[in-house]
Structure formats: C-alpha cells, structure tokens
Write a structure and sequence with these properties.
It is a single chain. Helices cover 18% and strands 31% of the residues. With 347 residues, the chain is an alpha+beta fold. The protein has a 9-stranded antiparallel β-sheet with strand order 1-4-13-6-7-8-9-15-16. A 7-stranded antiparallel β-sheet has the order 2-3-14-5-10-11-12. 37% of the residues are buried.
Length: 347
C-alpha cells in the first residue's frame, strides 16, 4: 500500500511538472517560500523623509508610507551594505494611482554623488482600473547615461495582498525576484567594468510624486483627490555585510564570511524549475528591454544575452510589438510611443 501511495505521489509530481508554465507560475511563486529572517523596522531602518507620513505598524515589524499633496515619505537602512539580499513584502495603493512611484532600491548616491551605484525596483502607478506596471534598473559607477531598464506587468493584482519583492546582489550576479520567481538576472561580465555596482549601498523605500514621467510618459499625473496614497511594507529582510564606504580594510576580506553565507542560500541559486519560471515570466510579462532597444544602443550592452527568438518579438525600440501584450490589440489603440498600451495585462 505504501508503495502504491509513493507511486501515486510520483505520478502527481510528474503531472505537475508537465503542466504549462502559464499555470504553474503562480503556484510556484507561493509554494516554497525562502527561508528568511525578518527584523523589526527600528532594528534596521530609519525614516528618510516625510516623517508624519511614515506610520509604523502596531507590532513594529512594518510601516505604511503615505503620499499626500504636501509630501511623500520614505525610509533608509541604518547601515550601508557590501552586497546582500534585500527584501520586503509590499502592498501597493489601489484605485487611481497615475503619476505615483513606489520604489524599493539600493543606492549610495548620498556618499558617491558623481559615481554612485544603484539597483532599482520601481512601481509605476496607473489610471483607475488599469494595472500597476513596474521596472528594474541598474547603474554602476555613475553610469546614469546608460540606463538598463526592463519593464513588466504582473500575473496578480499587487494592491489586493502583500507580495515579496527582493534584490540579491553579489560580486558575480544580481537577481531580482517577485515572490520566489526570479524575473531578471544580471551576470557580471568583465567588459562591464565599473558599470557593475561595486561600492557599499543602503536600502531605500519611498513613495513620491513622479507625475512628470511615471505614467504614459507623464501624460497622466497624480490626482490628489484620491490621496492619501498608501504603500505598506512588512516582513523586512536585510542580509548583508555592514560596511563603511571609506574604510581602509579591504571589503572583500572583511565580508568574506557573510558573502559565503549569502551565496549558500536558496535565493542565490536559480534552479532549473526557477529558470523555466523566469523564462516564462519574461516571455509573457516583460514589455520593454534595453537589450533590444537598438535606437538607444546600436551595440548591445556587454551583459546582454541576445536571444534570436526574443529579439524577433521586439521592435527596434525594445518594446513588444502590439503595445505590450503578445496578443494583438485592436487597431483603434494609439500607436504613439507615449501612449502605447504598456499597461494592458492579461492576468
């Protein structure tokens, strides 16, 4: 009997693996959470701006960031970190959110004004009834003239519940996660030189008025009739080596033990199943990639792995044909670049 149950379990697992990834992606995203250690807000973070609009949760483990007509708000990690895993569960504002940017990112711009590093997850609001979109970006050594944006849609509504968003940064690679699904990996290439982030960074979270660019190229701004806009953060994770950006001791030597710990964790390995989920996500939900934007970069940036099948789906602007969905849109939709249907989700 036990042997029969074992066989049935094996067959069920095989059947699951054979399901289309469009079905298994959401299941995988919530099935095996990372083994993470969370910390109370005051143990690892400080208010950054808009103090009155930063509200700690009653249990001290999370915060609400508010944007009103007077100010946005934000927080910053108490330390800078030399590499690390930075993560939080986030719930975004709902209803009309045009012009709003909710950002979760690492940066050292306050220390290195002209040659800063940065890793971004930026959520870009939208008009009522339209889904949120978001982008990831990377800068190294002040290379802000070489933006490395990718933009995406989601397979869920990020305003209805909390989802985990994470950034892994090591000397060799960077991985952006949504829940446990890796959505982007940047592998360090020698040709990148200083464009690969290498200096200690702080972790930031902010909500602010980005009316000039966030939604439809700035055509839809913040409408404060719907204020206050509230972004919630909880289950905060800071795993990294605290570092003084001007210390004399070689950073690699000082942080070797912590780096070894980071690279041994589950989130540092993209398994075959996760890589398949990442590929499926990018096929279905990525609608812009700088790697395929030949108008900006006639020669792709050195970290780009150009896939012929992927390139065929993108215009020379790096945007998906048919305005951000793989399904052809009605011809009545605008073809103006600033008004493309980037925000149409087939969730």
């Amino acid at each position: 009997m036990d042997g029969l149950r074992c066989l049935q379990g094996t067959l069920a697992l095989v059947s699951l693996l054979l399901l289309p990834l469009a079905t298994t992606l959401p299941i995988f995203a919530n099935a095996v959470p990372f083994n993470l250690t969370t910390i109370p807000f005051d143990e690892g973070y400080n208010p950054l701006f808009g103090d009155g609009n930063l509200v700690r949760s009653p249990d001290g483990k999370g915060v609400r960031l508010l944007l009103d007509r007077f100010t946005g708000s934000g927080f910053i990690s108490s330390s800078l970190y030399n590499h690390g895993f930075f993560s939080a569960k986030i719930k975004l504002p709902s209803d009309y959110t045009a012009g709003i940017c909710v950002a979760f990112y690492t940066s050292n711009a306050d220390v290195f004004e002209k040659n800063h590093d940065e890793l971004d997850i930026e959520f870009l609001g939208n008009t009522e009834g339209k889904p949120w979109r978001f982008q990831t970006n990377m800068y190294g050594n002040g290379s802000t003239n070489r933006g490395r944006e990718e933009r995406y849609r989601l397979w869920f509504d990020p305003t209805q519940d909390f989802h985990r968003y994470s950034i892994l940064w090591t000397p060799n690679n960077i991985i952006f996660y949504v829940d446990e699904v890796p959505i982007r990996e940047v592998i360090r290439k020698e040709a990148m030189g200083g464009d690969y982030p290498s200096k200690p960074m702080s972790l930031y979270a902010t909500i602010w008025d980005a009316s000039s660019w966030a939604t439809n190229g700035g055509k839809a701004g913040v409408n404060y009739k719907y204020a206050p806009f509230v972004a919630e953060f909880k289950d905060l994770v800071l795993e990294g080596c605290p570092a003084d950006p001007i210390q004399q001791l070689p950073v690699a030597e000082a942080c070797a033990e912590k780096l070894s710990y980071l690279t041994s964790q589950d989130y540092s390995v993209i398994s075959r199943v996760r890589r398949a989920a990442m590929r499926r996500f990018r096929q279905r939900y990525m609608y812009y990639s700088y790697c395929y934007d030949s108008l900006r970069y006639p020669v792709p940036q050195p970290e780009c792995d150009i896939l012929a099948t992927e390139k065929a789906r993108f215009k020379d602007t790096g945007r998906l044909k048919f305005g951000g969905s793989h399904k052809k849109q009605p011809k009545r939709r605008s073809r103006n670049r600033g008004a493309t249907t980037d925000n149409q989700a087939d969730v």
